[in-house]
Amino acid sequence: MQSITPTLLSVLTFIAVVAGIYGCMGVGRSYRGCVRRRVEAIGSAGSTALDVDATPRMATEVHGILQRLGLYGGDRRSGLMYRLAEAGIYSPGAHYKYLLAKVVCGTAFALVGVLLYITGLLPLHLALSAGCLFACVGMMLPYMWLERAITRHRRELQYSLPDFLDIMTICLEAGLSLQDTLRRVGEELRLAHPTLANELRIVQRDIELGATVDQALKRFATRSRCDGIRTLSAFIREAGRFGTNIAEALRGHADMLRTQREQAAEENAQKASVKILLPTLLLIFPAIFVVLVFPAIIQIQVAFASP
């Protein structure tokens, strides 16, 4: 059963590390290489042969292999990019980097089983089982990080919405148009709330490309899944349809969001007393039990042991 020698395992580990490094280089430079190839294709005036190095082609080939295996098709790619957009990640190669992080984490954790076998702590079959288990755990780490990033991004947006609505109400009452108001609010909130300012920059870009304000805000609400933005989009759409005063509606919406934030804080404060109960029972109560009861147990034992 001991067919794999430590020397062979060391060679396989070295090959895996080198392949991971070259994969990182290929994915990291894939977008830059695509841009350079496109510029060279435009400047070549119709030439069909392009001088392309092997590093950017690596990410494309890996992508094609995953598509042929059915592991990363169009639907899964769209779903992954949508989840990254929920976390506020819009870089062109973010989905490649996410997949590479899963592969690297899985490989790195799988090497723990190899090290356990090389050091002699575990036999071969147990080391392989531990390596597979560690690989699954490592591949779950990027997913857990993405979920936490989505939650943090959504919480930051929800926290900054009342200030956004207050400044927006002031700008509208001062006579600015809705589009100029969004541009001005994005500039004012760049230091206080950079997450919302970046999202407003994307909204402004959608408006410049031809979308209406309510459509751009609706897209913002769709990719962020924030109820406050969805309600704001509905307010602006209804105000434009019926010609009502949007400033009063925004002021009332800001007050409602602040009330919801206070209620959420009170709810978390009430939950804290319940959440602290389990650590109290697991940590503090055993120590108190040992201090109070253990001397009595020793005295009872001594009393029964004496003739």
Description:
With 307 residues, the chain is mostly helical. The chain folds into two domains: 6-150, no CATH class; 154-271. The protein is built from twelve helices and no strands. It has helices spanning 6-28, 30-43, 54-69, 74-86, 94-118, 124-173, 178-188, 194-208, 213-224, 227-242, 246-275, 277-305. Helix 2 packs across helix 3 (54-69) and helix 10 (227-242) packs antiparallel against helix 11. It is flat and about 95 Å long. The N and C termini lie far apart (60 Å).
Task: Summarize the structure in short.
83% of the residues lie in helices and 0% in strands. It is an all-alpha fold.
Distance between the termini: 60 Å
**What is the typical, i.e. mean, pLDDT?**
76
Order of helices and strands: HHHHHHHHHHHH
* Number of E-state strands: 0
- The gyration radius over C-alpha positions equals 29 Å
Give the overall shape: flat
Structural class: mainly alpha
- Unreliable parts: 43-56
Q: State the helix count.
A: 12
Count of the separate structural domains: 2
Task: Give the biggest beta sheet.
Answer: none
How large is the share of residues in beta strands?
A: under 5%
Range of helix content: over 70%
Name the features.
flat; 83% helix; 307 residues; 0% strand; mainly alpha; 2 domains; 12 helices
